[in-house]
From TrEMBL:
CDD domains: FruK_PfkB_like. This is Tagatose-6-phosphate kinase. Its EC number is 2.7.1.144. One of its GO terms (molecular function) is ATP binding. Keywords: ATP-binding, Kinase, Lactose metabolism, Nucleotide-binding, Transferase. The keyword DNA repair does not apply. Catalyzes the ATP-dependent phosphorylation of fructose-l-phosphate to fructose-l,6-bisphosphate. It catalyses: D-tagatofuranose 6-phosphate + ATP = D-tagatofuranose 1,6-bisphosphate + ADP + H(+); beta-D-fructose 1-phosphate + ATP = beta-D-fructose 1,6-bisphosphate + ADP + H(+). SUPFAM superfamilies: Ribokinase-like. It comes from the Bacteria. It holds the Pfam family PfkB. It comes from Marininema mesophilum.
Amino acid sequence: MSKVLTVTLNPAMDKTLMLSSFHPGGVNRVQEVMMTAAGKGINVARALTKWRERDFVRAFGWIGGGWQGEALLAQLDEWGISQEFIKVPGEVRTNTKLVDQNSGEVTDINEPGFTVETKDVDRLLAEFDHCLIGSELVVLSGSLPQGAPSDLYRTMIKQAKKREVTVILDADGEAFREGIQAVPHVVKPNREELQGLLQRELITDSDYLLAGQEILRFGVTCAVISMGAAGAWFFKDQQQFHVQPPIFQAINPVGAGDGMVAGIIMGMAYHWPLEQTARFATAAGAKASTIPGTGYGKRDEVHRLMKGVVIRNH
């Protein structure tokens, strides 16, 4: 059985449009178009499959039964990702990413996707419990589809913990607020997601230090606050430090946070010290930002970038 199970409940096909510059309300000419199977859990599985043996990770979740869902599954097969998706009526959504290569900004246009019903939730939870058998770690990440209860991640975290499976949660909004109540082992909110949870702005180092300590008081073992190009904060036990990524030329930040989650999993799998895990995870996210579309670097490429990662202990 696979050691890592990634859960993607609202997968997508990412349509990335590379523009020399983006002009809202004007005519924009696209330089390159890429269509990539995506969704946060799928992105994590993709990165891990590049770094580890094929049977290390398995992708699970819902998928629309239309032609786009079939195209997504075909791409997972092409990448060598083992998967056990449950088909539901409807189509997989398209998330359009407008990448302004001049400013580095990305404009996201995310479609709602398919709608699930109570019977779909019941089947998902039953299949999820089966998939947990033999798994050591599960990643619950990304948005919930229409019709799914907001406490679905909370329910799944309880299931996983009952099976003694380590849980990483990377979600937003109500799904994150509900999920953290079940006390996952690791959480990786970004700045905006954490501000939404704590209902206050995070600006200074002191703000982040207090926020990280507050998350640990929920009972989680490790908290990581990702900040894009500004790096990330890591908190575990008495360790708390800021990680600054290496200097690099970002092309497209889409999926960089998922690369960081995959890097954290690598550290957990190899029992690395937290600082080594933080260096690898930060370098993995940075490398992902240098790739057009949604993509991840090879393991040796990530290791080379680790040399430029700077850690500040607090």
